Structures are given as C-alpha cells and as structure tokens.
Amino acid sequence: xxxxxxATGDSIMMNPPPREYNGGExxxxxxDKADIRINxxxxxxxxYDCFASTFCGGTWLTSPPExxxxxxxxxxxxxxxxxxxxxxxxxxxLESTLATLEKHGIAFSGAGKDLAEASRPAFLEAGKSKVGxxxxxxxxxxxxxxxxxxxxxxxxxxxNPLRHSEVYNINSSHMNALKxxxxxxxxxxxxxxxxxxxxxxxxPGLFSLGAIDxxxxxxxxxxxxxxxxxxxxxxxxxxxxxxxxxxxxxxxHSHEIKGLTDDEPDYFLEEFARSxxxxxxxAVIGSGTHQLKAIEIYxxxxxxxxxxxxxxxxxxxxxxxxxxxEKYDIPTEYTAEQAxxxxxxxxxxxxxxxxxxxxxxxxxxxxxDGKLCRLVLYPLEMGFAAGPGLRGYPNLADEKTAKEIxxxxxxxxxxxxxxxxxxxxxxxxxx
Length: 431
What we know:
By secondary structure, the chain is an alpha/beta fold. It has 11 helices and 24 strands. The protein has helices at about 25-30, 65-70, 90-105, 115-120, 170-185, 190-195, 230-240, 265-280, 320-325, 335-345, 400-415; strands at about 1-10, 35-40, 45, 60-65, 80, 105-110, 110, 120-125, 130-135, 160, 165-170, 205-210, 210-215, 220-225, 245-255, 285-290, 295-300, 300-305, 310, 360-370, 370-380, 395, 420-425, 425-430. The strands form 5 sheets. Strands 1, 2, 5, 6, 19, 20, 21, 22, 23 and 24 form a 10-stranded mixed sheet that branches. The protein has a 6-stranded mixed sheet with strand order 8-9-15-16-18-17. Strands 12-13-11-14 form a 4-stranded mixed sheet. The longest helix has 15 residues, at about 400-415. It comes from bioreactor metagenome. It holds the Pfam family PGA_cap.
C-alpha cells in the first residue's frame, strides 16, 4: 500500500493572510492529496503574555494562538516544533505553544516538558500504515534544550537538541601564532584554571583559543561532528518507533554551514542525515537557513538538507522585548516596526532583502512497500516583489521562477549525484 508525504518548510506568520491572497487554495489541493502533511512551526504561539528569554533565534518571534488556525487551513496534520525560535519566550512560551497544539488535537513533536517528551515521535495513520515523525534542532542556545529527569530532580522543558562540535585545522605556523596570541592576551587564563581544577574537560590533541578548538594539520579547514549522546538517543528513538510504524520521517532544523554561504549543509548535518537513514528512517527533511540546499538520494531514501520557507514574515513582529532595544541601541519609545526598521536599515539589509529567502520547494513523496517510488517537487515563491500585505505568503511558482529554482537545485545537488528534471513548473527527482 502506498503512503504519501507532503512537506513544507518554515512558517513564520505574524499576520493572517489578507483577502487578496489567493495562493492558499491551490496549495491546499496539493497538500490534501498526501496522507502525511508536514509544516515547521517556527514561532511561539502566545498573546505576548510570556516573558522573553535572554536569547532568541535571531529575532524574538511569537504570534497569537489563533495563527495556528490560519496554518491549519492549508491542510497540515503535523507540525515540527524544534527550531531556534522554540524557546524565544522561555518556558511559558513553550507551554503556551504546546497547549495551543494540544487544544486543536494536532500531531507535533520536537519539544516538551522534558527530554523524553521532546524526543518522542508523533504517529499518524496512513491507510493501513503508521508513520512516525521526529523533530530535532541543531541551532539553539544551550539553555533551550530539554533535559532528562533524574530523581528527585525533574526534567527540564525545552527542545530536542542535536549538539555538535567544530574543529578548525590549521598549519604549524598558524598554530604557533595562535599560541602566541593566547600567551600575550591571557585569553585562556580562566579556562586553563578551570581545566586544572577538573571543572572543564581537556580535549586531547586540540588547542583552544577561548571557546574555539584548533588542531594542527597540513590541510587547513573546518570539520564538525555530532554529539555522541544525541546521536545515540536519536538512534534509539528511531529504532523503537519502527517497532510500531512502517515509516519514520526525521525533521531537522539547522543554520550551520560548511563555509561562507547559507546553501551548503555542514559536515555534521550530512553525518546525522545519513545515519538516520542507516538506522531505518525513510526520509530526512531539513530546514533552517531559509534557503534551499542540496537533495541527496542516499540508499534510495531522500535527504533534503533544506527545503527553505513556507511563510516568511520574520520582520513583522508587533512587539519586541526590551532586550531587542538594548541589543541594537534603539530608543525605547520606538514601536516594534520602527525598531525593526533600524536594524534592517529601512529594509535594505537582512534576511528579507534576499530574494533567495523567498523561494522554496514543497516535496511530495510516495512510498510503497518501504521504498521511495515517486518524488515530485513543487517550487514555491513567497511574493518577494509583492506589496507589503502579500509579502511572505506562498504561491506555486510560475514556469520561469520554477526553472530558476530547478537550475539552482541542480547546481547544489549534482555533487551528491542527484538527478532532477523539470516538467513545466514541477521538478521530478530521479529515483
């Protein structure tokens, strides 16, 4: 029996769609054809009655609980909630988000009252099959991650984390220069004392300059790797979920990159995604940097390193906490709109200025007898050139824009051996 899955990227909706917006019905017709209909909820659901965390995912994002009803109108039956904005409004904001989702009876995963709950998959029926969905986040402040209970101490609310480490390989000349800098500035004074006291673990073979780790090597560059505990936990969750589900989908949110651009997945993300397939996952769906990344068909299963956005209104918050004003040295009498305009230099810099952040794909996958048998991508465009009221809402891309998106995906995915072809305003992935 076939199981169909339709996935969409990040939803940051600060305002309900205006009456003039007419792209939703067309998208809903496609989404409704799938058994599993996925969206990434990248905002807190609250009435601005929750205190803000000292950190945020870039900008503090919260929207009224009624916003969920606007998203449900697209036909979604599952939300991934592990992302860098999950804890923007601390524990009360998380509690409000969870309560809103539970009130509507919608499936979700990725955050909870402790790590056991945050790691737990959601399950959905698809005909005679059951599909499990796991949500995990690699980009977050350490205080955002959930924690296990250890009696008598209760667990910590938060998101399901994918921690990782980075090491920068440098040659002997550069290493000597770093050690000279450390000696002359005393930058490592406090941490070295902490290591002597056993409070900070020594890392064999590495030299740390502050919080950054370096290793001497003839070949310079960066490496990154997943946290072994988070990998072991995820492997266990996947294997246990597959005892009752025929298919398992992993949603992963990551802003990390290999080099200087937002369209390359970091090394640890490749390691994580391929490991999930090795452990039995049917698909890995990434989001995070708001831009498209490569598609890889690994052992016959799809890995989307980032499918980008679905609704993008990251600069449309109605209120901002005091921390935002202090961070950017903005007069406190300014409205949120005025404060955001200062940071963005009146809309001339930041995420909302790059048209690539307003392009995405909506994958539609079909599986049969455990195997991927069809994969079609619907290119989306979010009104980059539209007026203020319509900007950020998704539409099926026209043929010209769809071809530009397809050409970009071919460029990004060819190094992974992925083959794509265009059919009018659709993209077909060769299985």
